[in-house]
Amino acid sequence: MTEHDLQKRQSIIDACRRMNALSINQGTSGNISVRHEDGMLVTPTSMPYDVMQPDDIVFMSMDGEAHGKRQPSSEWRFHLDILRARADVTAVVHAHPVYCTSLSILERPIPPIHYMVAVAGGSDIRCAPYATFGTEELSANALAALEGRKACLLAHHGMIATGTSLDSAMWLAVEVETLARQYLTCLQVQEPPLLSVDEIGNVIARMSNYGHRD
Ligand code: 13P
């Protein structure tokens, strides 16, 4: 393993630990992938992050063949399908954050409640219809919900955030969880008023010249 490979694998483990420290995930229910050579590096299934070592990270070629001493995440399929379909994506973070997951249980997308919804790429953050974990159907549903977006919820399951780097995917995961929390807090009082699709378009244009670049 080259020094570069080692660092990349370690950065995935560090991000997994950060997910739990930031309370956007619990236990080993999340998984992370990063584009690597002609495939991806992905977390192993069901392995506690505090014992995970760089050689536990699995390399998968783009045709879905796993190389390594561990089994890849049970969600490897949507990780691979997203990286295959989306040239703009370098890293995929999947987690079960409490507020995102609560909205996903209600099968509700996040509408334009706040201008920061725009950081996910459009005027809402969609909720993909439910399908069993690890299935092609879940992967297809996730890809459709991510069309023109960088993040989505997965009904009765959790969320996916993507980025042009692992840091940007992690940043977005935290941001989407914050929006979900704000939305659920508002819903305790009433359905919140929404920003218009046009205004989210203005925000996206403004962000491209400001600090919120991916
Ligand atoms: P893994 O431990 O297999 O990555 O799966 C957890 C999970 O998120 C299932 O949706």
UniProtKB/TrEMBL annotation:
Q: In which pathway does it act?
A: Carbohydrate degradation
Which GO biological process categories is it annotated with? Answer: arabinose catabolic process; fucose metabolic process
Q: Name one GO molecular function term.
A: aldehyde-lyase activity
Which Pfam families does the record associate with it?
A: Aldolase_II (PF00596)
InterPro entries attached here? Answer: Aldolase_class_II_sugar_metab, Aldolase_II/adducin_N, Aldolase_II/adducin_N_sf
Could you tell me the keywords of this UniProt record? Arabinose catabolism, Carbohydrate metabolism, Fucose metabolism, Lyase, Metal-binding
GO cellular component, as recorded: cytosol
Report the residue ranges that make up the Class II aldolase/adducin N-terminal domain in this protein. 10-184
This chain's protein is named L-fuculose-phosphate aldolase
Q: Which organism is it from?
A: Paraburkholderia susongensis
